[in-house]
Amino acid sequence: MIVIILIGIVVVIGLLWAGSYNSLIKHRNWVEESWAQIDVQLKRRYDLIPNLVETVKGYAKHEKETLALVIEKRNTIAEPNASRNERLQEDAELNGLLRQLFALSESYPDLKANQQFLHLQEELSGTENKIAYARQAYNSMVMRYNTKIESFPQNIVASTHSFTRNDMLDIPDEEKEPVQVTF
Fold first, then answer.
1. Which tens digits make up the pLDDT trace of 32-82?
2. Rounded distance, CA 36 to CA 95, Å?
3. Among 26, 58, 106, 180, which residue is least crowded by beta carbons within 10 Å?
4. Contacts for 35-43 with beta carbons within 8 Å, 24 or more apart?
């Protein structure tokens, strides 16, 4: 009778262990999927930038420095060996350059009215919104995953199988500053 009870306890513990392990795997995969969504949006923006640069080049021939920096940052983000944090840092710098590029349109009324430029500007704005949403979803998934691996009894399973915390994405300091609106 005692043997049957011990076997029953071992089976229950094994089932709980397997359930916790599978849950941790599921949460880790959600984090990875959330990161992949950010990557997809960054790639989308990466593909839009050459069209935008070509459109602006015709109007702003002497603004080559800004255009060259945008292309350089675009190419740096595509580095396959860059870490997530490096890619996000480059992305933040690219955001600043794109704002600078759109500010150029104020100096070129013809560019501002060009349908292709407007279309690209809308596409990039939509992509920026999708990137922001994907970052928010990623942070949410990371928070759930980190909570899971730190909660009892999953923390025992997590430490046994080397599940580690993921870092949430930070907003760059320049994006935290208040927006200046002038009329």
1. 999 999 888 888 888 888 888 777 777 766 677 777 888 888 877 777 777
2. 19
3. 180
4. 35/84, 35/138, 37/134, 37/137, 37/138, 38/131, 38/134, 38/135, 38/138, 40/134, 41/127, 41/130, 41/131, 41/134, 42/77, 42/87, 42/91, 42/131
Of the candidates 175, 165, 160, 166, which has an alpha carbon nearest to the alpha carbon of residue 128?
175
Cβ distance 51 to 120 under 8 Å?
Answer: yes
Alpha-carbon distance values, 133 to 75, 88, 173 (Å) = 23, 15, 19
In eight-state DSSP terms, residue 70 is H
Token pair 């928010």 in the structure block, residue = 136
- The whole-model pTM stands at 0.74
What CA–CA distance (Å, rounded) separates 137 from 43? 18
Which residue matches tokens 């560019």?
Answer: 111
In this structure, are residues 154 and 23 in contact, taking their beta carbons and an 8 Å threshold? yes
**Joined tokens for residue 127:** 């992509």
pLDDT over 50 at 183, yes or no: no
